Amino acid sequence: MAKGTRERFSDRLGIRRPTSGLVYEDAPTAVRHGLLNLLDVFSDSFTIPDWKTVYKDFQRSTDRWTPESGYVVSLNNIGKELLEKCEWYEFYDIVERAVYLLSLFPDQQSAFVNRFNQVLLRNYVGYQLREGKIERVGARQAEVAVAEARGMLRDAALAGPDEQFQKAIGFFSKIPQPDVENCVKDAVGAVEGLARILLNAPSLELNAAIRQIGEEKGVHKTLQQMVEKLYAYRGDAPGAGHAKTEHKPPVRVEDAELVLHTSAACIVYLARLYGKGVE
C-alpha cells in the first residue's frame, strides 16, 4: 500500500471480489479510470510534448487512425474517446505503450508500474505488468518455481530446453487468449529435453528417461510415476499430443497452468539431481 493511504472499505471487506474468481479477457471500468488517473499523475514524465501526441500514439498502438490535423486533444478526450471505448485487449496494448513512454524516467516508470499493478490487484484482474508487458497472474509459489526453472536452464548446455520452456511461457501469456495446447506441448517437451541432456540420450522419451534417472539417482517410484503421468497427459491432451476431437475434454487455461508449473518444478528437481544450475 502506498505511503499515506489507508485501506479502503471495499478492499477490506472484499466487496469488489468477483464471484467467478480473477477477471480475464476484460478491462473493467475501474481499471480504465485507474489508468486515466495515473496518466494525470505522471503527465510531466511522459516523453511527449502534449496530449494530442499521446492520443495519436495510443491510437497507433491499437491500429486506429485519426487525421493529423484537428481539434486540440486533452486527457479528457483520451479517456472518453479512447480508453472508455476501446476493446479490452486494446486497452492493455495502450497500457504497455504508456509504460514505454516513461522509459526515459526509470524511477517514474517503476512507480507507474507499481501503482497500475495495485489497480489491477484491487479489482481482481488476472493480469500484471512485468518488464513492460501485460502477463497473466499465477499463484505466487508457482511463479517462483517458473522463475527458478528459467534460472536453472541458463546453463549454456541446456539452451534447447531453455528455448522450449520460454516458448511455453510465451504461449501461456499470449494475449488476448493463451495458446494452451502449445503451452502444454512445449512445457513437457522442455522437461524431456532436459532429461535427454542429463542422460546424454538424444532420442529417449521422457517416460523411459525418468525411469533411468530413477535408477541412477534413487528417485522414489511414486515421483517417477508423477513425471510419467505428466508425459502421458501431454500425449493425450487434444491439440497438444494429438488432433482435437469431440471425444476428449479440451485443454483449459487452468490445465495448462498446472502443467506449466509442474514442468517447472520437474526441471528444477532434475537439474538439481545432476548438479546443474547450482551455485
Structure description:
By secondary structure, this protein is an all-alpha fold. The protein has 2 domains: 9-136, no CATH class; 140-273, Up-down Bundle (Four Helix Bundle (Hemerythrin (Met), subunit A)), CATH 1.20.120. 59% of the residues lie in helices and 3% in strands. The protein is built from 12 helices and 2 strands; from the N terminus they run ααααααββαααααα. A two-stranded antiparallel ribbon has the order 1-2. The longest helix has 21 residues, at 253-273. The model has no long low-confidence stretch (mean pLDDT 85).
Outline:
59% of the residues lie in helices and 3% in strands.
CATH architecture of the largest domain: Up-down Bundle
**Class by SSE composition:** mainly alpha
Cα end-to-end separation:
35 Å
Helix content: 55-70%
The tally of domains stands at: 2
What name does CATH use for the topology of the largest domain?
A: Four Helix Bundle (Hemerythrin (Met), subunit A)
CATH class of the largest domain, anyone?
Mainly Alpha
Q: Work out the number of β strands.
A: 2
Largest sheet: 2 strands, antiparallel
Q: Report strand order across the widest sheet.
A: 1-2
Overall mean pLDDT: 85
Strand content: under 5%
